[in-house]
Amino acid sequence: MASDSEQVVWHDRLLGVQTQNVSREVGDFVLKRAGSFWAYQLAVVVDDNAQGITDIVRGQDLADNTARQILLQRALGLPTPRYLHTPLVRGMNGEKLSKQNGAQALDARQPLTRLQEAGQSLGLGQVSAGTPGEWLQRAVPLWASRHTKITA
After folding, report:
1. C-beta separation of 116 from 134 below 8 A
2. What is the pLDDT of residue 148?
3. Which domains does the chain have, with CATH numbers?
4. Spatial CA neighbour of 83 closest among 150, 147, 12, 148
5. Rg of the chain over all Cα atoms, to the nearest angstrom
6. CA quadruple 69, 70, 75, 80: dihedral positive or negative?
7. What does the pLDDT look like over 64-75, one tens digit per residue?
8. Cβ(17)–Cβ(11) below 8 Å
């Protein structure tokens, strides 16, 4: 699909310009699994297009999938969404917090505190508010002002 010299270049709205040579750095990748199931890379590209997705926000651990997906979008004549890869929240051991790694659920009894922690992790700084709704009203425009002006 891509030649050995083809660099896929895209702009991540948080990480900036990203480059990957899929042939050299990844090699061939699976599009259909042995049991006739479509693999993630192709399925997500087709699904995002079918839903009219224009902006993808996901964790930085998935940023290296982007070049493969862009190659597939190009091969299928599909538009390329805008990408933004957020920092991961990590535990004391440095691993990302996820069910896969056995992370415990957040204590939801203090939602405002959890939102403030999430905002700090995403680089929003301290967003003062008295309620979760108030926090969201202040944080969403702050996030948007930082990450919606840059186009792909």
Report:
1. no
2. 66
3. 8-86 (3.40.50.620), 99-147 (no CATH)
4. 12
5. 18
6. positive
7. 999 999 999 999
8. yes
Mean pLDDT, rounded, for 134-152: 79
Which residues have C-beta within 8 Å of that of residue 123, sequence separation ≥ 6? 87, 146
Which tokens go with 63?
């940023």
User: Poorest-confidence range of 3-7, 32-36, 140-144?
Assistant: 3-7
Q: What are the structure tokens assigned to 129, written together?
A: 């508010």
Catalytic site residues? 99
CA 66 to chain centre: 9
Give 121's Cβ-side CA count (13 Å radius): 17
Give the tens place of pLDDT for each residue, 102-131.
888 878 899 999 999 889 888 888 999 999
